[in-house]
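Reviewers asked in the last cycle whether our approach scales beyond single polypeptides. To address this, we selected a multi-component target totalling 514 residues and predicted its structure end to end. The input consisted of the following lines:
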Amino acid sequence: MALVVLAFDLLLAAALIWLAWQATRAADLFHAVVSFIVFGLLMALAWVRLEAPDVALAEAAIGAGATGALLLSALDRLARRPRRHAPLYEPGTAWGFWLPAGSALLAMLTLAAWNLPAPGLGNEILASLSASGVEHAVTAVLLNFRALDTLLEIGVLLLAAVVIWALGQAPPPLVPSMPSPALPALGRLLFPIFVLVAAYLLWRGSHGPGGAFPAGAVFGAGGILMLLAGARPWIRSSEHGPWRLILSLGMAVLLAAGVAGTLSGQDFFQYPKGTAASFILVLEVAAGLSIALLIFALYLRGKPREHGSWGAAE
Amino acid sequence: MTELYPVVALLLLLNIVVGLVRILRGPTAADRMLAAEMFGTSAVVIVLLMAFVTDNPSLVDVALVFALLAALASVTFVSRAWSAMPPSDPDPPCPDVERKP
Amino acid sequence: MSALEWIGSLLVFAGIPFIFLGTLGLLRFPDVYTRLHALAKSDNVGLGLVCIGLGVQSGSVALLLKLVLIWVLMLIASATAAGLIARTALARGLRPWGT
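The resulting structure, written as structure tokens, was:
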């Protein structure tokens, strides 16, 4: 049986390398995007094999779902340009550069992996898990022990959304060449399940794999589905009040939680004794909502338009 | 019988790898998208089998997220990417099979 | 092994060939429409049998319902996608094989 498992792992690794190669080298952009989507799918399987269901969840929601939709809809703007028949760079010079550079990177990664402290920090985390406010080690690390990292991750997403808004208004979405009544029905049918599963994953985070990132990604993907089904996001005034509020909610609440520790005479992100559970709950909900709207905002490719301006633009 | 599930998972992964041929050959964009959709089904089954082999119920959630997001890629493909491609462009008649006269 | 586990395992093993047949159709059929036909039906029968089989084998009703939910979601996704792809392919002038 060990042989079967080994064969599975080797085949998975080989398929991942092949797909990564295809995603970077295929001359046809659509071919590259599909390779990348399948890469995300198999990457989630790899995380499952590595016994990291938390990462597998995030990869399934973000890698295979939201990023695929993002790239595919980016193709509609690129499709009108002349097709790119040549690869991005010349194969001749590429080998001379990429082979040594790749080998050097591989060597450095091997060296780094070799020098990692042998047992890691797993035992320390399990030992202090009871004080963290949650029963699941990954959530404890993400929102208590290393909440600073989560703050910075959401900061990166927020920066991306700010840059996209700076590019201007969202382009009007394409009308499908063959409108189908199945699409709005699909949106109405599935969106409640998206909300339900997002809430379930958020709740799961306190005691098992789940939490704000997969939940936010699933919720955001639900929004993308509604957009595809013909819904038009809009804002009431030029102020973008609720949009800005929810987009920055996760960042703001995480910062506030960090500063609260400092103000009460402790370290940054050190929650007052006995309140960790409630802090983490608030952080989870705020971060989940923000992540959902951030992913949705990335997909819009610009500032949402004002109410009523869609008709004029199309 | 659960002992045979890793073998089944390996066969399903092999199934995906063989299906990669369709992504490589196309010929139309829809064929490639279809292959990706098929991989979704196979991946769900693999994850479910792994959940049973390792007795880890949280893997069922991974399969649930896969299933929920399965529609997203194909719907985006049809209503955005494919609708924007010029019709004559990458849709040659199927070259790998002889057409009937 | 209990009877439930046997029935569950048999359902799982009955479902797997359908998935392989779907791939065979994807590789061997001549055009988009026939490939859609092979995938949308065969794969989902296979997935359904596997889901129900694993649910029965686990002996837990909650897990069985969750697995059936996964199956239903995949059914909805694949049915909608198949319809959309076929409609769009026809609108783009892709001629079905043999016409």
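Chain C touches chain B through 52 residues (CB under 8 Å). We regard this as preliminary and will revisit it once experimental data from Aim 1 are available.
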